[in-house]
Amino acid sequence: AILSVQMMLDWLGNRHDDDRLLRAAEKVEAAVEKLLSEGRTLTYDLIGEVKAARCSEVGAAVEERLRIA
Question: Is 41 left (phi over 0), alpha (psi -120 to 50) or beta?
């Protein structure tokens, strides 16, 4: 769902020639990439049952990385 937002921002940015939307899409993608590369706060489908984080925890982790970016 988070990368769906990124794709929508990218599409809208290109459609309306809006650099702000394109930058926002880049930031969302970078935040997700950073989270994935850290390998800690991941959902069940990515890390397995033992260490899985809830979707809300992953969302909060992405939000935190967006604030830092």
Answer: beta
Q: How many Cα atoms occupy the beta-carbon half-sphere of 36 within 13 Å?
A: 10
Helix ranges, 1-69 (H): 2-15, 19-38, 44-47, 55-68
The answer to whether the predicted template modeling score (pTM) of the entire model surpasses 0.85 is yes
pLDDT tens by residue, 9-47: 999 999 999 999 999 999 999 999 999 999 999 999 998
| Every domain of the chain and the residues it spans | 2-68
Q: In angstroms, how far is CA 10 from the centroid of its own chain? A: 13
